[in-house]
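Exercise 7. Given the components listed, write out the predicted structure of the assembled complex. Treat all entries as one system.
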Amino acid sequence: MATRLKIFLPFGLLILSVLIVPVSVMLISSLQNMDGGFSFSNYHQIFFSRYYRGAIYNSISISLITSLISLVISIIGAWALTKLSLSTKNILITVFNMSSSFAGVPLAFSLIILFGNAGVFKAITSTLHVHDALNIYSVTGMTFAYTFFEIPLGIMFFFPVLDSLNREWFEVSDVLGASKMFFISKVIFPIILPNIVEIFVLLFANAMGTYETVYALMGNNLVSIPTVIGSLINGELVANVPLACAFATLFTVIMTIIVWLGNRVTNIKGRRIS
Amino acid sequence: MSSIFLEVKDLSINLSGNQVIKDMNFKIQKNTLTTFLGPSGSGKTTVLRAIAGLNQKISGKILLDGKEIQNLAANQRNIGMIFQSYALFPNLSVFENVAYGLRVRKESNAVIKEKVGAILKTVNLQDKEQSYPENLSGGQKQRVAIARAMVLEPKILLLDEPLSALDAKIRIELRNQIREYQQRLGITMLFVTHDQAEAMAISDEIIVMDNGKVQQQGSPLEIYKHPQNIFMAKFIGNHNILEAGQLRSLGVEVAENDKSSFIIRPELFQTNITGDSDDYIVVSGNIKNISILGDRIEYRLTSDNGLELKAEFLNQQQTFTVGKAVKFYVRKGDIEKVGF
Amino acid sequence: MEKHADKVIAKIVITLISVYLVAPIIATIMYSFAKSWVNTILPDGWTLEWYLQLVTNSDFLSALVRSIILGIVTTIIAMCCFLPVVFYANVYDESIKARLRFITVLPFTIPGIVLVTGLVRVYANLPIPQMLVLLLAISLLSLPVTYQALDNAFIAHDFRAMFEQALILGDSPLKAFVKVVIPNIRVGMFIAMLLTFTSAFGEYVLTNIILGGNYETLKIYMYRLMQSNGQASSVLTTVYFFFLAIISIIMIAIMKRQGNKKVEEVGDTKKL
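Answer.
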């Protein structure tokens, strides 16, 4: 018992001090008004203010679209990756690993060089006399920007799944004379479906929580859940930490439910490959 | 008379809420090789770990050489143990692996060099001193593990399925070597296995376990010939197990109210009678299936009254073909009665 | 025939995706060597002056040092907290791993911006050094990566048997840990430390909000430069990129070596 205590003490203290206590306090604060009394006013404010509803709407629509696009591309990418030679795989995995950790300020800056108002893309389009090209500083632009870290993340999640599919299945199916489409729809798709759901959930959650890239690109000009939380804490609008807590609580509750549901789907299917 | 060396009294062990060992009692004599035999999940490894001091919570007593050891930490018990996965330290050479315990005991370099050299010679690995575990074969790794345990001259050496990760041929070779070390060096060994043949081949004494309990303890011959209950009869060999009614149908007198089972060992069938025919029962039927076991042949036959029986003969006599009508004989005195 | 067609399609797909993902990085690298690059398809000319300017800039050097300090201290804290737990889960009680599974989804359910809200609420007005709060919080955020990497370190050998064997041979648990466990997980530990260091080194959200820009790390400096001096910022981004690349290459090299070793070992046990 004493050994156990010693082993778990540092870990326990860390979890307690920077996870359990802050998250609990955040939960409680979300139910307090500015004077400290109990009230639902924060939540009321979130749901009845057009501005805050817009933040939720923006976050969800950007995340949904970007994670769906990234999901499809990363399945195709991961499939392609399994077809390559081992050394090429290793190099590409390094590349994808890096581009996913390139997210944030560096990515924002790169995108400004490419797609900013004085960027390469603008130069190309104006030479070609194309107008109304992509504006990176917009909801659409953000959706586009997120794909730069969502796609590599998706590929890195999918690659092990597709790589571990049993090669003998393909051979058996060939021997049985099944067509490729038949095999993919009847065998492969049902097997990886739980993984697709799980990875989609993770990509969606990751997009929902993205702050650094948006903030670096647009400051608080794009209204999304993370940027609203950021400005409520930093006081760039009006500092209102309880309201920020309500937003953060809402975020955590929704994400926990979604991730939990995603896990449930995976476990019910019970044929998880990882 | 040899003396009792290890005694386990009323041992009970709970693992994550389940009582996996229930009031277990047994004794082991000095300088013998005793085997714990049982199906997987029967609790044999758990008992071994309790003796080594690796289980956290046990109740009951463990006496080694007259002293209670159940409250001592694992590093105070002077017991050796061999693991199935060898548990060699990959970062140390063979020499340093074997020297590990001696270094813990702070022996001098000269003593270590001498003892390690001698024991590596015993296990025939003197030329591998400077090798690292990753460059050894499975059999060599296990011999290093054995040397590492034996060099400390432990009071008792516990072996937890030491051969199960090895190929069939190496297994037989190594089990004979283990038996040889045991006899030559006079070590008390307690050996866990799920393989009946292995247990039969090397043991002085076998303790068969199932479901957290001792089912039977005895010499290999005793256990093989006289299984105490149905579990033992099924587990230990390839015996024919018959109910009273089935035996009666073969012409053996069995009391009307007898609910026992009976075993007929397949190798006790004969193709002809030697001596008084009244001592025998006759089984006539047709050969259904033949398996060549190498030195022996197993026939499965369906008797005329519908029983399925197995008979084994040495692979030197006439052979029967499938479908042939045959008569096999077995001595009435060879039919063994077992309880439940 | 079909197999061949598959490979060609795969190569095309991968090339397109890689070009797409790498384009921003390439553009940044080009920008960092460009004399000037405004409203043109290619830069006007090439120069190294931005690099010289950055390297001699004291702001850059002190930001670099701050980030390194943050990385090192976080790595130490993370190791102290997580190594014993991962060791315990692997050697004493596997069932703990199931209970620690929540860790893997932590960054998705509680991302930095959410965690920081709670932290600010609790600690902002308390008389404790905010730096401490930051260090602990970054350690926590690195938990999924560190935990996974450490856990992987325990895959290669039967550590439970090795540890128990050392106890039976007479060692105390602590000595057994130091003599038998640590030397055999050192590579995995190194990878875990590298990953933890990288994630702390590049941390932005927590540092910016908790310390309010008073502690200018590389990322915060990068953000400031981005607002004022594009060229200098592109140099910094390029440097940062190469830092990530070097760490990735080191890790791939180590894992490759380990992988080869494992294959050999499996071959050995089969060979006998």
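Discussion: Chain B has two domains: 4-235, 260-338. DSSP finds nine helices and 17 strands in chain B.
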